[in-house]
Amino acid sequence: MTHDFWNDRWATRNIGFHEGAPNEMLVAHADRLGLGPGDRVFVPLTGKTRDVSWWLSQGHRVVGAELNEGAVRELFAELDRDPEVTDSGPLQRFEAGGLVVFVGDVFDVTAERLGDVAAVYDRAALVALPPDLRDRYAAHVTSITDAAPQLVLCFEYEPSQADGPPFSIDEDEIERCYGDAYAFELLDVRDRALRGVPARETAWLLRS
Ligand SMILES: C[S@@+](CC[C@H](N)C(=O)[O-])C[C@H]1O[C@@H](n2cnc3c(N)ncnc32)[C@H](O)[C@@H]1O
Fold first, then answer.
1. Which of helix, strand or coil describes residue 24?
2. Could you give the CA distance from residue 167 to residue 138 in angstroms, rounded to a whole number?
């Protein structure tokens, strides 16, 4: 998916992926990441998800990376926070309180820019990317977080019945993307309809 594809989706408000409340699987399974107070959580491909607000409410710090500047401005506005904006190489860095979001391409987020993170929370990130980019993304996130544990929420459906994104990610694809760096466990499966197609939302715990 190109940057234009996502910027067009934000410009035309074609953002059906955005949930109005914290994700149910996140709330049910975040404790499996074993985080302590104040630990930083990386939320790649952040959008303006309400999950950020949930992580902050649990006493964690959050660092995100999102291509679309308008989405990030909306995220801070909806949290009633006025960010300080600075340049960080090719990225812009928005910060307020315990929240930092890099605006730009996630592939420009280096380990140094990101800083220490105790976990990765991926909701609608891996599934947003086509296979070639997905490989690169998985290797990149593993590298810049030093293989921090991940809670990864995916969709699974019969691929012939719908086009991505979201793409269907099954266990074989988790193994292909993360099997070298992580052991993984399926925590939860819930039935969902995806544009009229029967689908399952899955929650995976990845530990190195
Ligand atoms: C399917 S949405 C998911 C957003 C959020 N995680 C949620 O659950 O609502 C994918 C997001 O990734 C962003 N995105 C896509 N490619 C990106 C990239 N290369 N770097 C940073 N963000 C990207 C898009 O702008 C979009 O907001």
1. helix
2. 15
22-53 confidence digits (pLDDT tens): 999 999 999 999 999 999 999 999 999 999 99
> Which domains are delineated in the chain?
3-207 (3.40.50.150)
Residues 6+ apart with CB under 8 A from 109: 65, 91, 102, 144
Tell me if 73 sits within 8 A of 103, measured CB to CB. no
Q: Is the pTM of this model over 0.90?
A: yes
pLDDT tens readout for residues 75-125: 999 999 999 999 999 999 999 999 999 999 999 999 999 999 999 999 999
List ligand 1's pocket residues with C-beta within 6 A.
6, 17-18, 45-47, 49, 65-68, 71, 105-106, 123-125, 128, 165
DSSP 133: H
